[in-house]
Amino acid sequence: MSETPLSPRRGDAPLTVRPELDHSLRLAWLLLVVPGAVWLLVGSVLGLIASIKFHSPEFLAAPAWLTYGRVRPAQMTAWLYGFGLPGGLAASLWMLCQLGQVRVVAGGLVAVGALVWHLGVGLGVVGILAGAATGFEWLEIPGFALPVLFVGYALVAVGALLTFFVRKQRELHPAHWFVVAAIFWFPWIFSTAALLLVFTPVRAVLQALVNWWYANNLLHVWTGLVGAGLLMYFVPKSLERPLHSRYLALVTFGGLVGFGSWAGVPTGAPLPAWIPAVSRAAGVLGVITWLAFAVNHLQTTAGQAKRSWAQTPLAFAQVGAWAFVLAGVLTTVLVLGDGALRQTWFLVAQTHVQLYGFLAMTLFGVIYHALPRILDAEFLGERWLRAHFWLATGGIACVVVALMLAGLAEHRALGNVEIAFVDVARKALPYLRLSTVGELALALGHLLLLGNLAGLLARRFQTHCCPRLVAWFQPEPAEVRS
Amino acid sequence: MNFGPGIFLSAFAALAFSWLGLVLLPQLQIGGLVPEKADQLTREPPRTNWLARQKGLTVTDEGTGDYYPAALPGLALRGREVYRANGCHYCHTMHVRQTGAAFDLVVTQTPTNITRLVQTVAGLRPGLTFGGAAQMLETLPATIVSGLTRVEADALAKSVEAAGAEVVVKLVPLGVDIARGWGLRQSVAQDYVRDYPVMLGNQRVGPDLTNIGLRRPDVHWHLRHLYHPQSEVPGSTMPPYRYLFAYRRIEFQPSPDALDWPPEFAPPAGYEVVPTEDARALAVFLASLRADASLFEAPLSPPLAAPPPAAAPATTGSPAETNSPPASAPQ
Q: Do A268 and B97 make contact, defined as CB atoms within 8 angstroms?
């Protein structure tokens, strides 16, 4: 397919900038994004504790709620359900308003949905730390909080879909495919997993299968749809160029939904042999997803390297885009192996690249770009955004490289039966110490994020709300004495 | 060009297709697994077919111990809840992987005139002398050839049997997990039939626990390990679970449940470590974990004991249970 410009209208004229589109998202974004940033900080503190416990098992060993087996799922829940999902929904809403040139529909409903969602996540994280986790990875949120999450999501999704359906610009941008598919994807996989794992559980090892299916569809397909869709809109928009190829976007989309949805079952799983075999084949075929995306992104940003790293939101998006490609490469490596590498730290590294390096960094870029426009205020300073960028990028690179090396060292040692298992576990220790440094950097970055958001809100309060408040309290102006 | 509805339809179809293939079809195939009696375990499916099972039976077998998987006692069931609540599956897997199987030829009974047998055995392996073969056959059961395929093993067995010996073709599962002693065979769906939740685990920060009850059957070992992992496994990176225990001053006399410690790890005089109900439940659960039954889809050769003077040896294919009657009794 030949190029099409970013805007559905032909030619190079950009979309008319209409501030009221952004302003209509104010309440929804505040309630989706700000608690999300708090969850991010909570998650990274928990992650830091988890990371330290590996090389210092006595660290905070006394309280039950801080044991590794509770802190790790709490961290991942806070990151994915607390920030990844609501952040992705917020960014999708913004993008739908921009592309459709329409204000958000039912903004109040979305705001209520956001509150309900975060309540559900809160119940979930507290429940996990209290020992009520379900025992299923990526769905540890206890059963009593799952319907709350579902209702919250439904309210937000209704607003998003209505915004999509009433759009004034009817032509579809590739980002539309990704984002609208994602909005439908989550309720299906979530309700299936909640029903078949928690409420009316399936028998025996089918639970593990449904768990792998859900985890893969959430962590790889859903995040891939939202993140890649946002990148395909945001990067061309910021560079004021069109997306390079609609056809490659279609290949990315097809690979993600067609092959990506089947991947995720590890080799050697205790299931009828056709299931891991088919899943592995799908995982290998999923190569086209990240290849097509890489070519598309490379061509879209061709010749604009300096500019694309100069603006901080775009720099975040660049890291996100290349992290998507790296995540794809790591997934292919894991799928092609014999399954032993998947049971080491290598898998945790891959999860970090996918969830944090790709989704979170992309969302940071979109948030830093859109929030000042939505709130009609400025951040305290570009250097604080840059500081967050360096902490986040450095931190995630440190964590990922360290965990990859730990996984490879562990894999080599595990294959050698002469080495006792205790020594195998200890081989990963130096790299785990390095990953703790990375986790610390990420936690500091989240502090900066919250600081930036607080500064922005304070600025808005100062410039918009303060004068009104001051005017309330001021007495009537005295008559000018002549 | 506006792909519009086509795109969304195909996305919907993709998700529906993956749901059909990875959720519905497997449910139809193995959704009907139930705990099975020993004589059913080695039968070929469709005992696993959900549709076939609808004709029948639900199995309740409390207390008889004849079924596989065996029902866990109440304290162990509670222990599984403790395992889940503390997220043990974030560091430990509960499935053993196997990368194939090889066959060994094992002589279990030699004839009175052993010369012809020794000659045959010496001919089976290049470089093996008559004296070497005779030495090999001195202690029974003797593994004379290993690492064969099934066809090779059967052919060689015939020739050795023709020399007058009783021969068994023994199945040897291969794989790193099995070489490390984490299991006798790979884990299969039948092993998890009674489990909820099934916590297979994705990480091996700690060793696999499928058969920990075979390696460490002592509940007190587990209790000491949970309280202070490095006391039982020096150099372990496992965190301690002290909150599952009560560390307290001894009142009047020591509690009968207090843990015994070697001198270097014992608490100071006047203090004892007493496990709570949760700790005991978890230890009992761990000591109950085993997956060593021979199944059709994951066969095991029965253990071969030295033969008594006049009894017939066991044949392959019957289920192996470590508490089954001794090999000398008729099966």
A: yes
Identity of the amino acid at A332: T
| Helix, strand, coil percent content, chain A, rounded in steps of 5 | 75, 0, 25
Token pair 């309720």: residue: A187
A230 in Cβ contact with A175 (< 8 Å): yes
Task: Establish if B125 touches chain A: CB-CB under 8 angstroms.
Answer: no
Separation between Cα atoms, residue A241 and residue A262, nearest integer Å? 34
Question: Which site among B194, B237, B241 would you substitute to test the A interface, given the most A Cβ atoms closer than 10 Å to its Cβ?
Answer: B237
Q: Is the pLDDT of residue B292 over 80?
A: yes
Residues A322/A274, Cβ–Cβ less than 8 Å: no
DSSP letter assigned to residue B326: P
Give, in order, the Cα–Cα distances in Å from A210 to each of A217, A456, B31, B42, B194: 10, 43, 12, 27, 17
| Residues A155 and A113 sit within 8 Å (Cβ to Cβ) | yes
Chain B residues 167-206 with CB within 8 Å of chain A: 176, 179-180, 186-200, 202-206
Cα B309 to chain centroid, rounded: 31
For an interface test with B, the pick among A75, A179, A198, A206 (most B C-beta atoms closer than 10 Å) comes out as A206
In total, the C-beta contacts within 8 angstroms joining chain A to chain B are 210
Size of chain A in residues: 482
Give the closest of A134, A184, A414 to B176, CB-based.
A414
Select from A145, A275, A153 the least CA-distant residue to A208: A275
HSE on the CB side for A14, CA within 13 Å?
A: 11
Cross-chain residue pair A64–B243, CB shorter than 8 Å: yes
What is the rounded end-to-end Cα distance, in angstroms, of chain A?
Answer: 76
What spatial distance separates the first Cα and last Cα of chain B, rounded to whole Å? 74
Q: Determine whether the interchain pair A257/B1 forms a contact, defined as Cβ–Cβ distance below 8 Å.
A: no
Cα gap B289→B211, rounded to integer Å: 5
CA distances in angstroms from B315 to A99, B39, B93, B127, B323, listed in the order given: 73, 15, 33, 30, 17
Task: Give the closest of A1, A180, A265 to B1, CB-based.
Answer: A1
Assign B320 a pLDDT band (cuts: 50, 70, 90): very low
Mean pLDDT by 10 residues, chain A (482 residues): 40 57 87 96 96 89 93 96 97 94 91 97 97 95 97 96 90 92 96 95 93 97 97 94 93 95 93 94 95 95 87 95 96 90 94 97 96 90 94 97 95 91 91 95 96 92 79 68 52
Tell me the residue length of chain B. Answer: 331
**Residue of B2, B8, B12, B15 to mutate for A, most A C-beta atoms under 10 A:** B15
User: Is B204–A132 a contact, with Cβ atoms under 8 angstroms apart?
Assistant: no
- Report residue B63's pLDDT band, with 50, 70 and 90 as the boundaries: very low
